[in-house]
Design a protein that fits this description.
Elements: H1 11-23, E1 28-31, H2 40-47, E2 52-57, H3 64-72, E3 75-83, H4 87-92, H5 101-114, E4 117-124, H6 130-142, E5 146-147, E6 151-152, H7 160-166, H8 173-184, H9 199-207
Parallel strand pairs: 1-2, 2-3, 3-4, 4-5, 4-6
Length: 209
């Protein structure tokens, strides 16, 4: 695995890229598919540049003073991978998060004071207490932070959740993971109306033509 540790990109390389984009007329940058780490030097450099940006990050990595600087630097959108609103859920997802739910919620609300749009991305796991999740979702939404209905965790073959359930993947890994996914949850997303179909059903439809 290559995504099990944070690797900070070179500061000068990032600033050079940003300046090149600004020189080409770019006014908005989205730091996609990376965990935007709290880097004071980078944020201070962005304060002096005429550019807005959005980030994906983990809110537990931030301090209140750096969230304020993040807003001053031009950040207009935060997608925070909170993943779960319960201690049990975060443990299941192996997030190694040292903060409690109340502390995480406070950081999200603090971020919203400085950044126009803040979203807590939630993943649903069997260990979650639905009532507790609903309580914290309402708490966040009432304070201007968008928190989606938890999207069920799909135990992709070779992912930590798959290995915890079944060990190393084999030739039936996808079928096993998909069957478990469908059996574990009744709903899947607040933007997904239809229930996913079983792989065997999809394969039969595909192969019949």
């Amino acid at each position: 695995d290559v995504a099990d540790a944070y690797r900070r990109r070179n500061h000068d390389a990032i600033v050079t890229e940003i300046d090149r984009l600004i020189g080409q007329g770019v006014g908005y940058i989205y730091f996609i598919d990376e965990i935007f780490l709290p880097q004071k030097a980078l944020l201070e450099a962005l304060v002096d540049r005429d550019v807005k940006f959005g980030v994906q990050t983990r809110i537990d990595l931030w301090k209140p003073e750096l969230l304020e600087l993040l807003g001053a630097a031009g950040c207009v959108s935060i997608e925070a991978g909170l993943e779960s609103l319960t201690v049990e859920g975060r443990a299941m997802l192996a997030k190694r998060c040292r903060l409690g739910t109340e502390e995480l919620a406070a950081l999200l609300v603090n971020a919203r004071r400085h950044v126009p749009f803040v979203q807590a991305n939630l993943i649903g796991v069997i260990e979650d207490d639905p009532a507790l999740v609903d309580h914290w979702r309402k708490h966040l939404i009432d304070r201007g932070v968008w928190a989606n209905e938890p999207v069920p965790l799909y135990p992709y073959p070779s992912s930590p959740s798959y290995r915890e359930l079944w060990g190393e993947p084999d030739d039936l890994a996808w079928e096993r993971a998909h069957e478990h996914y469908l059996a574990s949850f009744r709903t899947f997303s607040d933007i997904q109306e239809k229930r996913p179909r079983a792989l065997a059903e999809l394969e039969a439809t595909c192969c019949s033509h």
